[in-house]
Structures
1.
Amino acid sequence: MRKLAASLVPLLTFLPTPVKTTPVKTTPVKTTPVNTTPAGIISGNTAVAGGTFAGPPFAYGVYDSAVLQDKPAAYWRLDRSSSGAETSLRGGLRGTYSGTRSATTLPDGSGATAFDGATGYFEVPDNAVLSPATTGEFTLEAWMRPDTLSFPNQQSSGYVHWMGKGEPDHHEYVARMYSFENNENRPNRISGYLFNASGGLGAGSYFQDAVSTGQWIHYVLVINANAKSEAYPNGYTKIYRDGVLRDQDDLSIRGQIIIPSDGSAPFRVGTRDFGSWFQGAVGKVAVYNGELAPTRIAAHHQAMTTPPGRRP
Ligand SMILES: [Ca+2]
């Protein structure tokens, strides 16, 4: 205040009329804040600059930053369903949309794709980074939202393959969800499996909870054929729901060891091989050529569900 009053003195001397000696009314001076970070912007929003990765340049969201921090081999947000094609952030793998699908939104307001359960899917051509065999370690991550609990176009005992890579003699892995009523008493079980190239029985993990239509679920399937131990002599699969590890199993089934193999099938979302179709939404599909750490999986879940202002 004192400095301000002093600075006004020279100005006042140039005034044409005599100035009364009453105190000059001062107004606060606008000062430049030392902290130049604008209020309301968190660093996570701007940590990843647009244009660094394949795809159109724009500011990525908090969730996208969390995923990209872990260097996925490929990452499709599935927010381009109306354009017909989407190239992965990182990896530059171009996928195409087919059939009936529509745009929808995730819990954080970002875009995803709702598939009609009959014809809609997203497909990416075969690539080595989409195969667990490439490094022996693989993580598949997505947000999924069933829009029915009884799928109209299911297969076998009553389930749909909503994401995966596998065709006859080129089987690799699949994400599955059972209808509420099925022939194995697995109401709405959500699971993931690794197969030998010939198919047949797969090794895998699951969670089986009460599921509601319209409810978003964070799904992470880990396949690790390198980490062999007494408990998991052939390596393992793990499955996480909403950031929490729910199940872990050896890479064998009924005495048969399951070994990842590099097949030629495309990677698909909404269906695996047209044998069944997911009626629901999927977004933020990421694949990693390694095992994503539990703390990072939890962090991804939090990035989607916890408003920035409420984070610890
Ligand atoms: Ca291949």
Note: The radius of gyration is 27 Å.
2.
Amino acid sequence: MHVAVAPANDWILPQFDFHVEDLGHPGAKLFFSQINPYDALRRAVEASWKWLYGWDGRVGKNKVPRAVQSVKRITLTLRSTMDGVAHTFGSGEGEKQVHFALKHIVNSHQGDTAEKKNTRVREEILGVLVHEIVHCYQYNGKGKAPGGLIEGIADCVRLHDKLPPPHWKRVAPKGKHVPDPERPNDPGEWKWDWNWDAGYERTAYFFDWIDSTWQTWPESSRNTLQNTTSRSPPVTSAAGSAPPPSATSMPELPLPYGWIKQEHESGHPFYVDTRANPPRSIWTHPCEDEQYLKANPSPSPSGPSPPIGKGLFFRALNARLEESDWESEADLFLELTNWPREALWEAYCADYAPPQ
Ligand SMILES: [Zn+2]
């Protein structure tokens, strides 16, 4: 006789409880036709472990993260009287409650064939559950991180887990020209929309971009996770490093702090160091410019190279939100990637804003 052996991580999974307010609700019927509640919750929990902690549930391989140990029970309630989509809250030591609106399930049942409708509703339920379960496991800068950052992390996990809703698009806000009153014929200065932490898909795609491209930046512009206190300006070494990726194949390297990219009337881009007095303009990216490199020598590598892979930035960000209070003045992005948040956002917008 064979005895079934439970997978190794079963003991650390939280207990799942499940309530349905109205079994006759069309949303409840759709839920049961498409979803196995245990499998869906387990998948969401494991996605959270994977992307927030890089932990695959195998005990002994690496230590069980503290946040994973602390969640003892997750109760999912499908609610008939609730508007909106879903929300999550703590309801005691180690207890989490996820409330999910049945109306939203009904509204997601869309598509031109029965099969497409069912796929859509299934993926929507799984995606919303991933988002909500991330809230059960993520750190939040001791309660002080902005809501947009928290929501962006939850939706980026949803994105990494390949469950984005079809209406999500990787589009950055495009910014606008702000005319200079003294030079009325000039197109004026280009101003980006700096609202990176609006949350949800906007923040999620920004994080996804950092996470996916970070490893393609030159070694010296990446910080090591062991060396997160470095405040040295981001620099790259011209000798031996790959040329900056071309705009068509990969996003361009973020600009060092204080630099902006503009377009010459000939169509060629040029770069301006706005912190120099007078501002200095050059044709090449500052990371290829001798004068810039001379003034900002590459720091000698310290510590071992970071492990490289998708999800690494994300894990570092979550870990950083565990350790300390969120301070709006401090730049976690600079600390983790060696690029100031503004420079990252600007590079991202330059690549993904819709054409003007
Ligand atoms: Zn949320």
Note: The first strand starts at residue 15 and ends at 20.
